Amino acid sequence: MQIEVRNLNKSFGDFHAVRNVSFNVEKGHLIGLLGPSGGGKTSILRMLAGLESPSSGDIVFEGKRVNELPPQERGIGFVFQNYALFKHMTVFDNVAFGLKVKKQAKERIRARVMELIELTGLKGFEHRYPHQLSGGQRQRVAFARALAPEPQLLLLDEPFAAIDAKIRQELRSWLKDMIERLGITSIFVTHDQDEAIEVADEIMIISKGRLEQKGTPWDIYKNPQTQFVASFIGESTIVEDVSKLKGFANATSWPDTKALIRPEYIEVGRLSEFRIPSATERGRVKHIHFRGSEWLVEVEVGSNLLITYRSLEKDILHPGEEVSVLVHRAYLFNESDSWIMENALKEDPMPIHI
Amino acid sequence: MKKLWIPLTYVVFLVLLIAPLIKIFTGAWANGWGGFIEAVARPQSLHALWMTFLITIIVTVINTLFGVMLALYLVRADWLGRRMKQLLNSVVDLPFAVSPVIGGLMIVLLLGPNTVLGAFFEDAGFKVVYAMPGMIIATLFVTFPLMVREVMPVLQEIGAQQEEAASTLGAYSWYTFWHVTWPSIRWGVIYGIVLTVARCMGEFGAVLVVSGNIINKTQTATTLVYQDVENFNVIAANSLALILAAVSVGLLLLMEWAKKRKEVH
Questions:
Q1: Residue A348 belongs to a domain
Q2: What percent of chain A is modeled with pLDDT above 70?
Q3: Domain boundary pick from A228, A247, A281
Q4: Taking CB atoms and an 8 Å limit, are B170 and A98 in contact across chains?
Q5: What is the ipTM of this complex?
């Protein structure tokens, strides 16, 4: 289903939960609504479902305004954060609910439910009650139940929040495969950036009720358009006066400008490890943390504390050690503008051509 | 300390609850089986028991219906403002706080034959006070919080999400109520019904004020017991009391069972 949202607003009393949000979703796309908790993501999802009515603005499905349409008529499937399974019904009856409401023939219901139970890998569990299932199984029941009436749009509210980390990983890829296979337009809400980046075709970053940026995960990572997006996606440190860092002296031309530097923009190591030593400067290792697959290094450069990663394959650094630091680029921003600045000294001053 | 408290608790329990029951039992049997039958078979006894039975049935049906509806509105309705909900929520408890006699008096003052409303109904050939309708209203007043207070916490606990899920699956409110909400609240409702029935049968103060206690007309079982005691007809009073007590004990046992069921779904 093709979706268009125009100038959507929602207030709960004095609290302005959603502010002037507009976006389009193309048919078959998988969209992630990403942002901090309490930022209005769930309100947007609930308005799309018709569970909440907008204070102003339009919601358009396939060119038709649906603001006044109740949830029953919107042709959507909704997966709730805590699944909201009917606890007094078996898995079979849960999945069959949407079909029984439509008064379909018994055999057809049975065939469709068994098809979905097979699809979601719940075969053998159809006579269990929700409280006899694990978290992952419940999530799949919720998914099968939402899909049973063949909705045109699938909405998922924090679908993985209540599942433990290991199974979450499996379910993510399972869900992505499943949605791709069915080709159903889907929107899911999450506060976990890894989840959004991994699962979604496109991400919408929502903060304080505003849509900050919409784009592919790579786009958003590479070209964050607001300071919030830059600091929310990936890890980063804010540097008050970037002109003090080597290679960024030009930054003095823009007063009142701060910089945001991601760990992956920074390299640390012995001087001999760098191709262009002149672009590096001295720093002191403050702390190192083992991150499972790499080291996280806190390094002091002048008055700034920077964070970066270091491969486990390289020599281990020690706290207090003098190291060389190369800052590849920084994301500069001020009140009105934001842009990316590359390290000016990175171009080899004396290139040797062979 | 413990050695003192345990027997003391038993003594209080015996004196307050068991001793009166035994007294009622022996009192009713003072003249043997015949005395009991004779007391219960009096026309005013049969009429009073019939009145109590009728009031109980009617009040329980009305109270169940509106109690469940009010609980649903108080918990679920978004169109009811938060302040309005708070106000209604506290008004629901009013009958707990007000003495039943005063409740009955309010009805007399509002609907009695000398009032505008009462006169209007009387002209229309519909007697409210000192008649069945007034007694039903009085009993409704007294029992009203019971159902609401039983169902509301259950509704709050299960939350609105299952109902919302049903709505996204295409079910409208009636279907959702019977297939999703009802299975979750039914034991709470049954518990509420048991409490309402017990209260209806035992109600005395409000009914006494409103009914005028007219023998063979507006007399209920409890008010007849009162009258029999006044007339030193102790065997009759005990016999009727025994019937009321037996039904109540049966109901309370049913309630215990319902309470257990409430926890499983």
A1: no
A2: 98
A3: A228
A4: yes
A5: 0.81
